[in-house]
Protein backbone atom coordinates (compact mmCIF):
# COMPACT_ATOMS: atom_id res chain seq x y z
CA UNK A 1 0.00 0.00 0.00
CA UNK A 2 1.52 3.33 -1.05
CA UNK A 3 1.77 6.39 1.15
CA UNK A 4 -1.16 8.16 -0.50
CA UNK A 5 -3.48 5.19 0.11
CA UNK A 6 -2.45 5.02 3.77
CA UNK A 7 -3.14 8.74 4.22
CA UNK A 8 -6.52 8.41 2.52
CA UNK A 9 -7.53 5.49 4.77
CA UNK A 10 -6.50 7.41 7.88
CA UNK A 11 -8.51 10.44 6.77
CA UNK A 12 -11.58 8.31 6.07
CA UNK A 13 -11.23 6.59 9.44
CA UNK A 14 -11.07 9.96 11.18
CA UNK A 15 -14.15 11.18 9.33
CA UNK A 16 -16.10 8.02 10.20
CA UNK A 17 -15.01 8.19 13.87
CA UNK A 18 -16.00 11.87 14.10
CA UNK A 19 -19.35 11.21 12.40
CA UNK A 20 -20.10 8.33 14.78
CA UNK A 21 -19.18 10.42 17.81
CA UNK A 22 -21.29 13.34 16.61
CA UNK A 23 -24.23 11.02 16.03
CA UNK A 24 -24.25 10.02 19.72
CA UNK A 25 -25.79 13.34 20.74
CA UNK A 26 -27.92 15.35 18.36
CA UNK A 27 -27.69 19.10 18.93
CA UNK A 28 -29.96 21.45 17.03
CA UNK A 29 -30.87 25.10 17.55
CA UNK A 30 -33.70 27.22 16.20
CA UNK A 31 -34.97 30.79 16.46
CA UNK A 32 -38.47 32.07 15.80
CA UNK A 33 -37.12 35.05 13.87
CA UNK A 34 -33.90 36.29 12.33
CA UNK A 35 -34.33 40.06 12.71
CA UNK A 36 -34.30 41.83 16.05
CA UNK A 37 -34.22 45.33 17.43
CA UNK A 38 -30.91 46.11 19.14
CA UNK A 39 -31.36 45.48 22.87
CA UNK A 40 -34.32 43.13 22.39
CA UNK A 41 -34.43 39.72 24.06
CA UNK A 42 -32.98 37.12 21.67
CA UNK A 43 -34.16 33.59 22.43
CA UNK A 44 -32.54 30.43 21.05
CA UNK A 45 -34.10 26.99 21.56
CA UNK A 46 -31.46 24.26 21.99
CA UNK A 47 -32.73 20.72 21.35
CA UNK A 48 -30.69 17.71 22.50
CA UNK A 49 -31.39 14.12 21.41
CA UNK A 50 -29.68 11.19 23.18
CA UNK A 51 -28.48 8.53 20.72
CA UNK A 52 -25.90 6.94 23.07
CA UNK A 53 -28.01 3.91 23.94
CA UNK A 54 -28.02 4.74 27.65
CA UNK A 55 -29.12 7.53 29.95
CA UNK A 56 -26.95 10.64 29.61
CA UNK A 57 -26.10 13.17 32.31
CA UNK A 58 -24.69 16.52 31.21
CA UNK A 59 -23.01 18.54 33.96
CA UNK A 60 -20.36 21.23 34.38
CA UNK A 61 -16.80 20.02 34.83
CA UNK A 62 -15.23 22.46 37.26
CA UNK A 63 -15.28 25.84 35.53
CA UNK A 64 -16.02 24.29 32.14
CA UNK A 65 -19.76 24.43 31.38
CA UNK A 66 -21.50 21.60 29.60
CA UNK A 67 -23.27 24.09 27.32
CA UNK A 68 -21.74 27.08 25.55
CA UNK A 69 -23.62 29.44 23.25
CA UNK A 70 -21.13 30.65 20.64
CA UNK A 71 -22.06 34.08 19.25
CA UNK A 72 -19.98 35.86 16.63
CA UNK A 73 -20.29 39.15 14.78
CA UNK A 74 -20.63 39.26 11.01
CA UNK A 75 -16.85 39.67 10.59
CA UNK A 76 -16.22 36.42 12.48
CA UNK A 77 -15.03 38.04 15.71
CA UNK A 78 -16.59 36.81 18.97
CA UNK A 79 -19.33 39.05 20.34
CA UNK A 80 -18.57 40.81 23.64
CA UNK A 81 -19.62 38.70 26.61
CA UNK A 82 -21.74 40.14 29.39
CA UNK A 83 -21.30 37.15 31.70
CA UNK A 84 -21.28 33.37 31.89
CA UNK A 85 -24.41 31.31 32.26
CA UNK A 86 -24.56 28.58 34.87
CA UNK A 87 -26.65 25.79 33.42
CA UNK A 88 -27.57 23.14 35.94
CA UNK A 89 -27.02 19.44 35.26
CA UNK A 90 -29.59 17.69 33.07
CA UNK A 91 -30.43 14.05 32.50
CA UNK A 92 -31.64 12.78 29.13
CA UNK A 93 -32.99 9.23 28.98
CA UNK A 94 -31.84 6.99 26.15
CA UNK A 95 -33.58 7.91 22.90
CA UNK A 96 -35.25 10.95 24.47
CA UNK A 97 -35.16 14.62 23.48
CA UNK A 98 -35.10 17.75 25.61
CA UNK A 99 -35.16 21.46 24.75
CA UNK A 100 -33.74 24.43 26.66
CA UNK A 101 -34.50 28.02 25.68
CA UNK A 102 -31.56 30.39 26.16
CA UNK A 103 -31.65 34.21 26.16
CA UNK A 104 -28.34 34.96 24.46
CA UNK A 105 -28.89 38.72 24.84
CA UNK A 106 -28.25 38.17 28.57
CA UNK A 107 -24.92 36.50 27.76
CA UNK A 108 -23.63 38.68 24.92
CA UNK A 109 -23.78 42.36 24.04
CA UNK A 110 -26.26 42.46 21.17
CA UNK A 111 -27.10 46.14 21.61
CA UNK A 112 -24.83 47.10 18.72
CA UNK A 113 -26.54 46.89 15.32
CA UNK A 114 -25.11 44.43 12.82
CA UNK A 115 -25.17 40.81 11.70
CA UNK A 116 -24.43 37.90 14.02
CA UNK A 117 -24.26 34.11 14.08
CA UNK A 118 -25.02 31.67 16.88
CA UNK A 119 -24.34 28.00 17.49
CA UNK A 120 -24.36 25.72 20.54
CA UNK A 121 -21.47 23.61 21.86
CA UNK A 122 -22.35 20.74 24.20
CA UNK A 123 -19.70 18.86 26.17
CA UNK A 124 -20.14 15.45 27.72
CA UNK A 125 -17.84 13.35 29.90
CA UNK A 126 -17.53 10.79 27.09
CA UNK A 127 -16.42 13.26 24.42
CA UNK A 128 -13.90 15.98 25.25
CA UNK A 129 -14.32 17.69 21.86
CA UNK A 130 -17.99 18.29 22.39
CA UNK A 131 -20.91 18.31 19.98
CA UNK A 132 -21.57 21.37 17.84
CA UNK A 133 -24.98 22.39 16.55
CA UNK A 134 -26.08 23.99 13.32
CA UNK A 135 -25.24 27.69 12.91
CA UNK A 136 -27.94 30.34 12.53
CA UNK A 137 -27.61 33.87 11.20
CA UNK A 138 -29.51 36.84 12.62
CA UNK A 139 -29.28 40.61 12.69
CA UNK A 140 -29.91 43.43 15.15
CA UNK A 141 -30.96 46.87 13.96
CA UNK A 142 -31.49 50.36 15.34
CA UNK A 143 -34.56 52.33 14.36
CA UNK A 144 -35.54 55.92 14.96
CA UNK A 145 -38.00 56.58 17.75
CA UNK A 146 -41.45 57.85 16.76
CA UNK A 147 -41.93 59.28 20.25
CA UNK A 148 -39.62 59.88 23.22
CA UNK A 149 -39.71 61.43 26.69
CA UNK A 150 -36.99 61.82 29.33
CA UNK A 151 -38.00 61.23 32.95
CA UNK A 152 -36.32 61.06 36.33
CA UNK A 153 -35.97 57.73 38.12
CA UNK A 154 -37.89 57.82 41.43
CA UNK A 155 -35.65 57.37 44.46
CA UNK A 156 -32.46 57.99 42.46
CA UNK A 157 -31.71 61.74 42.34
CA UNK A 158 -29.85 62.82 39.21
CA UNK A 159 -30.61 59.58 37.33
CA UNK A 160 -32.68 59.93 34.17
CA UNK A 161 -34.14 57.44 31.75
CA UNK A 162 -35.66 58.03 28.33
CA UNK A 163 -38.80 56.29 27.14
CA UNK A 164 -38.94 55.57 23.43
CA UNK A 165 -41.71 54.16 21.26
CA UNK A 166 -40.78 52.86 17.82
CA UNK A 167 -42.01 50.53 15.11
CA UNK A 168 -39.94 47.90 13.36
CA UNK A 169 -40.88 45.72 10.40
CA UNK A 170 -39.88 42.12 11.09
CA UNK A 171 -40.68 39.28 8.68
CA UNK A 172 -43.35 41.37 6.94
CA UNK A 173 -44.98 42.29 10.28
CA UNK A 174 -45.14 45.77 11.75
CA UNK A 175 -44.16 45.43 15.41
CA UNK A 176 -44.39 48.13 18.04
CA UNK A 177 -41.62 48.45 20.63
CA UNK A 178 -41.13 50.33 23.88
CA UNK A 179 -37.57 51.03 24.98
CA UNK A 180 -36.06 52.46 28.15
CA UNK A 181 -32.61 54.03 27.72
CA UNK A 182 -30.15 55.24 30.38
CA UNK A 183 -29.63 58.92 29.52
CA UNK A 184 -26.08 58.99 30.89
CA UNK A 185 -24.70 55.95 29.04
CA UNK A 186 -27.09 55.79 26.09
CA UNK A 187 -27.41 52.05 26.74
CA UNK A 188 -30.78 50.34 26.49
CA UNK A 189 -32.05 49.29 29.91
CA UNK A 190 -34.85 47.26 28.37
CA UNK A 191 -36.39 46.82 24.93
CA UNK A 192 -39.87 45.31 24.85
CA UNK A 193 -41.88 44.13 21.88
CA UNK A 194 -45.48 45.17 22.53
CA UNK A 195 -46.85 43.19 19.59
CA UNK A 196 -48.15 43.67 16.07
CA UNK A 197 -49.65 47.06 15.28
CA UNK A 198 -51.79 48.49 12.49
CA UNK A 199 -49.97 51.71 11.81
CA UNK A 200 -52.66 53.49 9.78
CA UNK A 201 -53.68 54.66 13.27
CA UNK A 202 -50.72 56.41 14.91
CA UNK A 203 -49.80 54.92 18.32
CA UNK A 204 -50.26 57.27 21.28
CA UNK A 205 -47.93 57.58 24.28
CA UNK A 206 -47.96 59.48 27.57
CA UNK A 207 -46.16 59.34 30.92
CA UNK A 208 -48.27 59.48 34.08
CA UNK A 209 -47.51 60.83 37.56
CA UNK A 210 -45.85 57.55 38.66
CA UNK A 211 -43.36 57.81 35.76
CA UNK A 212 -45.11 54.98 33.95
CA UNK A 213 -45.21 54.91 30.16
CA UNK A 214 -48.68 54.39 28.71
CA UNK A 215 -48.96 53.29 25.07
CA UNK A 216 -52.21 52.94 23.14
CA UNK A 217 -52.16 51.34 19.70
CA UNK A 218 -54.43 49.59 17.23
CA UNK A 219 -53.61 45.86 17.27
CA UNK A 220 -56.46 44.54 15.11
CA UNK A 221 -59.30 46.22 13.22
CA UNK A 222 -61.48 45.71 16.33
CA UNK A 223 -59.13 46.12 19.28
CA UNK A 224 -56.84 48.75 20.75
CA UNK A 225 -54.17 47.76 23.28
CA UNK A 226 -53.28 49.90 26.31
CA UNK A 227 -49.82 48.78 27.53
CA UNK A 228 -47.91 50.09 30.55
CA UNK A 229 -44.15 50.01 31.25
CA UNK A 230 -42.40 51.35 34.34
CA UNK A 231 -39.30 53.58 34.38
CA UNK A 232 -36.97 50.57 34.68
CA UNK A 233 -38.46 48.76 31.70
CA UNK A 234 -40.69 46.35 33.61
CA UNK A 235 -43.87 45.43 31.75
CA UNK A 236 -46.86 46.19 33.98
CA UNK A 237 -49.62 44.70 31.85
CA UNK A 238 -52.07 45.47 29.08
CA UNK A 239 -55.79 45.94 28.53
CA UNK A 240 -57.94 45.55 25.43
CA UNK A 241 -60.34 48.29 24.38
CA UNK A 242 -63.03 48.53 21.73
CA UNK A 243 -64.23 51.71 20.06
CA UNK A 244 -66.87 53.59 21.97
CA UNK A 245 -69.58 55.84 20.57
CA UNK A 246 -67.31 58.87 20.10
CA UNK A 247 -64.79 57.64 17.56
CA UNK A 248 -61.35 56.13 18.17
CA UNK A 249 -60.08 55.58 21.72
CA UNK A 250 -57.46 58.07 22.92
CA UNK A 251 -55.08 58.61 25.82
CA UNK A 252 -55.99 61.48 28.11
CA UNK A 253 -53.86 63.03 30.86
CA UNK A 254 -55.91 64.40 33.75
CA UNK A 255 -55.15 67.23 36.19
CA UNK A 256 -53.99 64.79 38.88
CA UNK A 257 -51.35 63.38 36.51
CA UNK A 258 -53.13 60.11 35.80
CA UNK A 259 -53.40 58.77 32.26
CA UNK A 260 -56.50 56.91 31.12
CA UNK A 261 -58.08 55.65 27.90
CA UNK A 262 -61.09 57.74 26.86
CA UNK A 263 -63.75 57.08 24.23
CA UNK A 264 -63.56 53.31 24.53
CA UNK A 265 -65.28 50.27 25.96
CA UNK A 266 -63.01 48.09 28.10
CA UNK A 267 -63.07 44.57 26.72
CA UNK A 268 -63.80 41.82 29.23
CA UNK A 269 -62.94 38.52 27.58
CA UNK A 270 -64.56 36.42 30.30
CA UNK A 271 -67.81 38.38 30.20
CA UNK A 272 -68.00 38.14 26.42
CA UNK A 273 -67.36 34.39 26.54
CA UNK A 274 -70.18 34.00 29.07
CA UNK A 275 -72.49 36.10 26.91
CA UNK A 276 -71.73 33.98 23.87
CA UNK A 277 -72.46 30.87 25.90
CA UNK A 278 -75.97 32.15 26.58
CA UNK A 279 -76.76 32.58 22.89
CA UNK A 280 -78.62 29.53 21.63
CA UNK A 281 -77.56 27.92 18.40
CA UNK A 282 -79.97 27.54 15.49
CA UNK A 283 -79.62 23.75 15.86
CA UNK A 284 -81.00 24.11 19.42
CA UNK A 285 -84.20 25.84 18.23
CA UNK A 286 -87.33 23.93 19.24
CA UNK A 287 -89.15 22.14 16.47
CA UNK A 288 -92.41 23.80 15.40
CA UNK A 289 -95.22 22.43 13.25
CA UNK A 290 -96.91 24.83 10.95
CA UNK A 291 -100.36 24.17 9.52
Q: How would you characterize the overall build of this protein?
A:
Helix content is 11%, strand content 45%. By secondary structure, the protein is mainly β. The chain folds into two domains: 27-140, Immunoglobulin-like (Sandwich); 143-275, no CATH class. Strands 2, 5, 8, 9 and 10 form a five-stranded mixed beta sheet that branches. A five-stranded antiparallel beta sheet has the order 15-16-17-18-21, with no helix packed on it. A four-stranded antiparallel beta sheet has the order 11-12-13-14, with no helix packed on it. Strand 19 and strand 20 (259-262) form a beta hairpin.
Topology:
Elements: H1 3-23, E1 25-30, E2 35-37, E3 43-50, E4 56-58, E5 67-73, E6 90-92, E7 97-103, E8 114-124, E9 127-132, E10 136-141, E11 147-152, E12 160-170, E13 173-182, E14 188-196, E15 204-207, E16 213-218, E17 224-229, E18 235-243, E19 250-253, E20 259-262, E21 264-266, H2 269-278
Parallel strand pairs: 2-10
Antiparallel strand pairs: 1-3, 3-7, 4-6, 5-8, 8-9, 8-10, 11-12, 12-13, 13-14, 15-16, 16-17, 17-18, 18-21, 19-20
Q: What number is the mean pLDDT?
A: 85
How many separate domains? Answer: 2
* Contiguous uncertain segments of 5+ residues: 11-22, 278-291
- Helix percent reads 10-25%
Q: What about the largest sheet?
A: 5 strands, mixed
Q: What does the overall shape look like? A: elongated
Q: Based on helices, strands and strand pairing, what is the structural class? A: mainly beta
Number of helices: 2
SSE order, one letter for each helix or strand: HEEEEEEEEEEEEEEEEEEEEEH
Based on DSSP secondary structure assignment, what is the total number of beta strands? 21
Distance between the termini: 104 Å
In what range is the share of β-strand residues? Answer: over 45%
Radius of gyration: 27 Å
Amino acid sequence: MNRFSQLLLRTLALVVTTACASAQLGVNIRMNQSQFLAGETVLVAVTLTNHTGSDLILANNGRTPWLDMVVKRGNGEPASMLGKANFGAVKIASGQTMTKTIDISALYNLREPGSYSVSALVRSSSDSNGFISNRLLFSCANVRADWSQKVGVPGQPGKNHEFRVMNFTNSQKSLLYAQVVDCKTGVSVQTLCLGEALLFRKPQAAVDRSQTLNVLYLATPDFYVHARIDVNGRFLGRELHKRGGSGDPRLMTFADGSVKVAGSVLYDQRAEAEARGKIRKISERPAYTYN
